[in-house]
Amino acid sequence: xxxxxYRAYQTNQVFTLPQEKLVLMLYDGLLRFxxxxxxxxxxxxxxxxxxxxxxAQEILAELMAGLNFEAGEIAQRLYQLYEFMHRHxxxxxxxxxxxxxxxxxxxxxxxxxxxxxxxxxxxxHDYRTRVNGLDVQR
Length: 138
Hints:
Layout: H1 5-15, H2 19-42, H3 46-65, H4 73-95, H5 98-124, E1 128-131, E2 134-137
Antiparallel strand pairs: 1-2
Helix pairs in contact: 2-3, 2-5, 3-4, 4-5
């Protein structure tokens, strides 16, 4: 794997992504694994469901670990939301409860869409700052 130039390129692409795009990718992966887990439970393919839900839990753990608590209350609230979803997925996996997964998917979809919209607005807005009396674009 270390000698695979394509894999090295992919890894480099992920590590050089802006933070907001990386979070969006994590949300997308999280949604994908939750949906795969849901499909597995519905098809009674419990091994597939288990593997997918474990992957989703790992992504949530990454999101929790990556929070900057110096950002204030929003980081605390996100942590609580991630923690709730993490516990919910664990219970859904144990109980093979599709309804619990759907609840997490609904929360995640809203969170992902809000993040995408906030990112889009941030990048489309003409941000300016004053430096030595001059307007300078950031």
